[in-house]
Amino acid sequence: MALYLVQHGLSLSKDExxxxxxxxxxxxxxxxxxxxxxxxxxxxxxxxxxxxxxALQTADLLADFLRPPGGVVKLSGLNxxxxxxxxxxxxxxxxxxxYVGHLPFMEILTSQLVAGNAALTVFRFQNGxxxxxxxxxxxxxxxIKWTLMPNIG
Length: 153
What we know:
The model has no long low-confidence stretch (mean pLDDT 96). A hairpin with a 6-residue loop joins strand 5 and strand 6 (142-148). The chain has one domain: Rossmann fold, CATH 3.40.50.1240. The chain has a six-stranded mixed β-sheet, with helices on both faces. The protein contains four helices and six strands, in the order βαβαβαβαββ. Helix 1 runs parallel beside helix 2 (53-66). The protein is of the alpha/beta class.
């Protein structure tokens, strides 16, 4: 069981698209990550996203490969400056849910869960990448189980 955190794919600028939908590179990166995740047999029960266009598009592209039984669902609380403290209290590794959101929220949430300190940076997200967190069964402490990123450089 796990918790999957995803920063939306690379988006267009506001000048190019006021809704800031995914760029072609953003779509390509998310599709590549989705293909690899499917190849590895990653199973998610649902994909929840912030509702912003770039997060929805990312969630839909990943769902094409991961086929979550609970579908793709909009969820409040995943926006860039939302309260990670409140969100962290409601997450569990038991549900295998993927959350697609934004920076700085995703990095702060990861630091809060893994290090117990939102001010630390324990991982730098990449657009379209997946960070898999899990909980130690003996201590309930969170750790980074694996990551899948578009760029390794």
